[in-house]
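Ops channel
N.P.: pipeline sanity check, posting one input/output pair.
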């Protein structure tokens, strides 16, 4: 749905800004919370 796409884009933007901030702890949290569920889904 359209709302799902918007939510995904917002999470992508948040992920990119965390990576560029260089905060390793936040990056690990986002990786485990965002990337892992996506790979399980596919």
């Amino acid at each position: 749905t359209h709302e799902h796409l918007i939510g995904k884009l917002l999470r992508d933007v948040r992920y990119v800004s965390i990576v560029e901030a260089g905060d390793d702890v936040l990056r690990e949290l986002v990786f485990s919370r965002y990337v892992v569920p996506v790979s399980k889904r596919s």
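N.P.: looks fine end to end. Residues 10 and 17 are 11 Å apart (CA to CA).
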